[in-house]
Design goal:
The structure is a single chain. This protein is an alpha/beta fold. Helix content is about 30%, strand content about 20%. It is built from 13 helices and 12 strands. The strands form 2 sheets. It has an 8-stranded mixed beta sheet, with helices on both faces. Strands 2-1-4-5 form a 4-stranded antiparallel beta sheet, with helices on one face. Strand 4 and strand 5 form a beta hairpin. The longest helix has 17 residues. The radius of gyration is 22 Å and the shape is globular. The protein binds adenosine-5'-triphosphate, iron/sulfur cluster and magnesium ion. The site of adenosine-5'-triphosphate has 13 residues, from strand 2 and helix 1.
Length: about 375
């Protein structure tokens, strides 16, 4: 394997060497430690990993939503060849909600309970995600401008597109009057209202029951195709990652430890953490019992030296504790950050082979990982 980062041609989003930490009275939490990530145009990419591994912090850093201080952020974030971290707030406001849209992790707190769904969606249709009008101009256009009726029509159209039952009635409802699935549809309608190029979705539908969850995923997949979206999807559910994405990043302890096209990752996971995650999926067939990964994600106030996974890794040895492993790749789209794949390694273990992986995890080809089968929390 060569010592290079995997390369995505024609990227829509490119994150390079992202570091995020937080100051607190207890000290400095070094959460995101040099993340590289890219989403190609028209590509659906998932970031998967256990709770607390830094998925939402990465997403918030991309969207410049972290207050600095207490956060400390460094690295480059490019969207369609524009450097987001070098833009003024006014310049970034033209992109947020218009060209780049987000669905947040919690559908309830993402909607304002004091305004009707109609007011919130019509505002998004009329002013874009954040709007560039001053407060007086905003008020004039909102209450007296002729385009208000047009924006309301557009909002209803979008509710129909997300297959909302009785959209007119929903427009006059408050978010608390809607079910979880309906609120999730409202958020999808809001995110796609202004035809963004990139959609970032954080744990979409994971708070919903299984049947509604599957309906939301099917809907999202159809919308991704019909709107020709590039997507960065964040999830702790590997079933979702397998169902929707072209390529997966596996995140652990604030680092991307492996990336590969989806089927390659599931059929031949290389990193011991990826193998552990896949082995921990309960299956209905194949006979192999689900195995957990002992331990938990690292403490960011004092993270482990070297490979952050070493306290939990069955292959850990001296070299793992010394230096951070380099990302190795054997194709343009895949890479793994583990010394077992280092050409010059002096390790007591060989890199796990396909046969080792199969023995450990049972036979994967016959298995279907629907989201119902995956309970990874
Ligand atoms: N504002 C903050 N200040 C200090 N620490 C924070 C802050 N935001 C997040 N963290 C810490 O960063 C770590 C990663 O959090 P993050 O929310 O990114 O996890 P996640 O991967 O999204 O998990 P989940 O699957 O539960 O959503 C956690 O240990 C969290 O406590
Ligand atoms: S670098 Fe070492 S500790 Fe880390 S995953 Fe590889 S073998 Fe395990
Ligand atoms: Mg999260």
């Amino acid at each position: 394997m060569t010592n290079i980062e995997p390369v995505v041609h024609d990227p829509m989003l490119e994150v390079d060497d992202l570091h995020v930490g937080f100051e607190s009275f207890d000290g400095f939490s070094d959460v995101i430690d040099g993340v590289n990530l890219s989403v190609g145009k028209g590509e659906v990419v998932t970031v998967a990993g256990e709770t607390g591994c830094g998925k939402s912090v990465t997403m918030k850093a991309i969207l410049q939503l972290l207050s600095e201080p207490p956060a400390r952020v460094s690295g480059t974030i490019e969207f369609d060849d524009m450097s987001l971290r070098e833009m003024s707030d006014a310049e970034f406001d033209q992109i947020k909600g218009e060209r780049m849209s987000i669905i947040f992790q919690d559908p309830m707190s993402s909607l304002n309970p004091t305004f009707t769904v109609g007011e919130q969606l019509t505002d998004t249709a009329q002013f874009g995600g954040y709007g560039d009008a001053g407060i007086l101009e905003y008020t004039r256009r909102k209450y007296f401008g002729s385009e208000r009726a047009e924006a309301r029509e557009r909002a209803i159209e979008m509710l129909e597109e997300v297959q909302m039952p009785d959209p007119e009635n929903v427009m006059d409802s408050y978010p608390t009057q809607l079910s979880g699935g309906m609120r999730q549809r409202v958020l999808i309608a809001q995110a796609l209202m202004n035809e963004p190029d990139l959609l970032i979705a954080d744990e979409i539908g994971t708070a919903l029951d299984v049947t509604i969850h599957d309906q939301i995923l099917d809907l999202l997949q159809n919308l991704i195709d019909s709107h020709d979206l590039s997507v960065l999807m964040i999830t702790h559910n590997l079933g979702i990652a397998r169902q929707v994405s072209d390529r997966v990043y596996v995140m652990y302890g604030g680092r991307m430890v492996e990336t590969a096209p989806t089927e390659e990752l599931f059929n031949y996971p290389k990193h011991p953490y990826t193998q552990g995650l896949i082995a921990s999926i309960p299956r209905l067939t194949g006979g192999a019992m689900a195995e957990g990964i002992d331990g938990s994600v690292p403490e960011y106030l004092d993270p482990p030296d070297g490979c952050r996974f070493h306290p939990r890794c069955p292959y850990a040895h001296e070299a793992c504790v010394k230096d951070r492993p380099q990302m190795r790749s054997d194709s343009a789209e895949a890479g793994v950050e583990c010394v077992l794949y280092d050409d010059n390694r002096a390790a007591p273990f060989d890199a796990p082979t396909l046969a080792d992986t199969r023995n450990r995890m049972g036979t994967l080809e016959d298995e279907s990982y629907s989201s119902e089968e995956v309970y990874n929390d």
